[in-house]
Specification:
This protein has 511 residues and is of the alpha/beta class. 28% of the residues lie in helices and 20% in strands. The protein contains 15 helices and 21 strands. Strands 1, 2, 3, 4, 5, 18, 19, 20 and 21 form a nine-stranded mixed beta sheet that branches. Strands 9-10-11-12-13-17 form a six-stranded parallel beta sheet, sandwiched between helices. Helix 6 packs parallel to helix 7, helix 10 packs across helix 11 and helix 13 packs antiparallel against helix 14. It is globular, with a radius of gyration of 23 Å. It binds zinc ion. The site of zinc ion has 5 residues, from loops.
Length: 511
Amino acid sequence: MSFANSTSNATATATAAAAGRCDTLIRNALVIDGTGADPVAADVAVTAGRIAAIGQLSGWQAHATIDASGRVLSPGFIDVHTHDDTNVIRTPEMFPKLSQGVTTVVVGNCGISAAPVSLKGDPPDPMNLLGKSEAFHYPTFASYVAAVDAAQPSINVAALVGHTALRNNHMDRLDRAASEPEIAGMRAQLREALEHGALGLSTGLAYGNAINAPTAEVLALAEPLAEFGAMYATHLRSEFADILEAMDEAFRIGKHARVPVVISHLKCAGVENWGRSGEVLKALELAGKHQHVGCDCYPYTASSSTLDLKQVTDAYDIQVTWSEPHPEQGGKMLKQVAAEWQLDLHAAAARLMPAGAVYHCMADDDVNRILSHPATVIGSDGLPNDPLPHPRLWGAFPRVLGYYSREQKLFSLAAAVRKMTGLSALRFGLHERGFVRQGYWADLVLFDADTVRDAASFTDPMQPAHGIDAVWVNGKLAYRGSDKKATGERAGHFLARSPRTAEAGQAFAHD
Ligand SMILES: [Zn+2]
């Protein structure tokens, strides 16, 4: 760097003042910038929340200097698929996410969001994953944005609006199609949300409270999205035998609405569906020739949600994580509960409901193939209100780095980081985030590539990851790995949807 050598005096003074001093200087890091490029040894200077300079910054002064020798510095991880809607307000430290290096969460997935929502009683399934009725206070999207800002979470928050949440607001019962006036009411609320920065619309068409919504209902609801440059994200109507038909429905909705489609937690679920990931990814690639499509995936072979009778089977293990009428059964295998009660699996499940479950419903090869695909970014799908959460809540991102990249060698470390940062930011329109780039927001994570790994397991799931040394959010040090503690800095922002840039076109390229 040669700021001091500048020939113009005016420039020299101006740059020297800006250049020589910064809030935080991270020295001797191996920088993985989020583009997929190989690591580069560099110093990174942070000032006023942003990355001020990257390079050999030996002459720089800083309030805080960190020697990052032997460590990787990358953009903070972007968790594109979360159900943290009410937790970013109720538990703003967001420790399960912060401690794994996550600096931004996208909430409002799978058709369920905390806003805009007016409940008539208990939240309908699976909105109960977001909390009990007391957790829902946001009749407008604007009120949700204000609540996030007031709560000052430790990480940034961007939000989709859920189709099932909108149905809840306008329909007396959810086991039928919405009428035209009901769809009009839902659209008006979606529009209010988009005006206040929502990223787009999500659906969870597999769930009982959305499955009777015909495609036409979603087509009509999705129409305002294009005008706002928004997107459509979907938990498919089926992840089992009918997955190709369900993908086709998603692509039709995206085409009709003229917006990008993100397939949430793409998987081949159910034993009879194992081995179909090649076929499924081919369908995604084919659609990608004509429209913007992509997917996210969590790095595990087990799924988790509310307990669903349609998914009860003896073909693989199902673990009960919570049960409202029988909390004492949480943690047991459904098989074991059924045996103790001398019931068949379905009868036992029905008696446990409302309940939560982990389903060991996927094959390794399918998960490996989907995770590796260039269209795939990482989302945890963690369930923060589950007393025995699927370990993805605490471990998804370090598991991609440790288990899938370092141990299984599915992809390089730089490729792994891109799936968790740059590609995610471009796809979800998170402006000036996702890359270590001068002028961008300083959302950063420092980690040890040799030791980083998830510690959370199915039996002991609330464990911070190993190997995460430090996490900065908007330039503030929010997590220190030396004692695995949050620093108390809560510098997260609500991130409104930003206009799609030319670079964003890459977000849906499949190579
Ligand atoms: Zn889902």
